[in-house]
């Protein structure tokens, strides 16, 4: 639905990807979680300043996903 109305790199997608990654973490599907955390991070880095807390949260979650592989 969002893909039809927003560009694929729109900041709104970062929260969608982050939430999908969290679901995959809950399912112990860490490879999928890593993929979606990385997508969220790519988008956030394009739109936000490096010190933005949202980037830090995604990096932290990404590190957790890697540690659970």
UniProtKB/TrEMBL annotation:
Gene3D superfamilies xrefs: Tetratricopeptide repeat domain
TPR repeat boundaries on the chain: 14-47
Stored Pfam families: TPR_10
Any coiled-coil regions, as ranges: none
Keyword annotations of the record: Repeat, TPR repeat
The keyword DNA-binding is annotated on this UniProt entry: no
Listed PANTHER family: NEPHROCYSTIN-3, TETRATRICOPEPTIDE REPEAT PROTEIN (AFU_ORTHOLOGUE AFUA_6G03870)
Listed name of the protein: Tetratricopeptide repeat protein
């Amino acid at each position: 639905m969002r893909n039809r109305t927003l560009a694929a790199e729109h900041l709104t997608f970062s929260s969608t990807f982050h939430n999908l990654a969290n679901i995959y973490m809950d399912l112990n599907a860490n490879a999928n979680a890593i993929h979606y955390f990385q997508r969220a991070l790519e988008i956030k880095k394009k739109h936000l300043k490096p010190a933005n807390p949202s980037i830090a949260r995604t990096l932290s979650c990404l590190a957790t996903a890697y540690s659970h592989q």
